[in-house]
Amino acid sequence: MKWPGKASLEIAIVLFFYGKWGGNFFLDGNKVKGINSYLAIPDQLSGHPYKLKANEDKSFQGSIVLGMGFILESEEALKLIELNPRNKEVLFPFLNGEDFNTNPTQLPSRWVINFFDWPLKRENLSDNWLEATSNQKKIWLRRGIVPIDYPDRVATDYPECLQIIEERVKPERTRKKEDGSYVLRKPLPQKWWIYAEKRPKLYLTISNLNQVVCIPETTKFLTFAFSPTNIVFSHAMKIIAFSSIPYITLLSSTIHQIWAIKYSSTLETRLKYITTDAFETFPFPNSLDNLSRVGESFFNLRQEIMKENQEGLTKTYNRFHNKIESSEKFMRLRDLFVEIDNSVASLYVWDDISLNHGFYNTSQGLRFTVSEVAKNEILQRLLVLNHKIFNEEQKKIILKQKS
């Protein structure tokens, strides 16, 4: 329940009984057949979902920059490019959760300097790069220094951008304690010109895609949107390496939403979308046929509404889940949302479940969603499917090892 005071948080009042309980069970004010360890109605199948191999290496967290000096207002970034066009090679739009949720286009409002994992500078060394051993090269790279004949880019190739990092980031990164040791862990002080976590696997995975599915890690609503790939993503963003409409449509459906809400965590009253728990465990249907048309219609209309009202995702979904909002476009958006859920349920061959869409009070507040009965049935079937897929994957792994 929502805390009755001013603090923005939720509480759970749980009553325990020592011994075998012979009375009734009440959950959220409703009489139920029992209560399990998830504080939910007991299912036919219990236990945690498993991570699935099919979803491996598809979801990522954005870069941990660690240094506000890396981040620039757009005017400053554009001036740097005007000053030296080559600076464009290390300047990128920087997407964080606030821009994603508040900008009607979900595009970044700021830029970031990115020196990737490059060395700092070239120096006159006794050896040269082309003749050095691999071990010697590793030593140089750890020090951020390479010989004059080093063929690739280094940070000093971009003096205007490096000067900004030297002035705004280096002092913070190289802070020391009274005993002379660094405050930050190694190699953050030594590699002050590059990010704390560069996420090379993320950017390599999405390098051949023109767009990817994104969601802020902490968000009021579970709202996915496409983002371009020629940007740097903040650590507050979760990125899923899908670029097609059917995938983002399925992830935006109630079927995925209720799974994510159950197995992710919360911050105050907001959802924290944890990809290891919400995405990597999610059992996809065998096919995503018939989701393109309805998905495209839904996202086009959603974007049209945001552009028309100059409102971002959060404000748009505040209205979407407000029963007082009865404008023609929001009514149409809800109809398309229902169509998405029905289409996804059909892909799982769950046409026997009555979804009964409407406005319901949930632990996240009033939501336009499916009934509680439908939610419990969907969660149970998804858990059964998760276990089934996991067991099939394990059998294949064992057979492969034997062969």
What features would you describe in this structure?
With 403 residues, the protein is of the alpha+beta class. Helix content is 36%, strand content 15%. The protein contains 13 helices and 17 strands. The chain has helices at 74-83, 97-102, 134-143, 159-168, 170-173, 200-205, 245-252, 254-263, 275-278, 292-309, 313-320, 328-347, 372-402; strands at residues 25-27, 30-32, 59-61, 71-73, 91-95, 110-113, 121-123, 145-147, 211-216, 218-219, 225-228, 232-233, 237-240, 265-267, 270-272, 358-362, 365-369. A four-stranded antiparallel β-sheet has the order 3-13-9-11. A hairpin with a 2-residue loop joins β16 (358-362) and β17. α7 (245-252) crosses α10 and α10 packs antiparallel against α12 (328-347). The model has no long low-confidence stretch (mean pLDDT 93).
Q: Round the mean pLDDT to the nearest integer and report it.
A: 93
Number of helices: 13
Sheet with the most strands, sense and barrel status: 4 strands, antiparallel
Q: What overall form do the CA principal axes indicate?
A: globular
List SSEs in N-to-C order.
EEEEHEHEEHEHHHEEEEEHHEEHHHHEEH
| Range of strand content | 15-25%
Q: Number of DSSP strands? A: 17
How far the N terminus sits from the C terminus, by CA atoms, comes to 54 Å
Radius of gyration from the CA trace?
25 Å
Identify the strand order in the major beta sheet.
Answer: 3-13-9-11
Which structural category fits the helices and strands? alpha+beta
Helical content stands at 25-40%
Low-confidence stretches: none
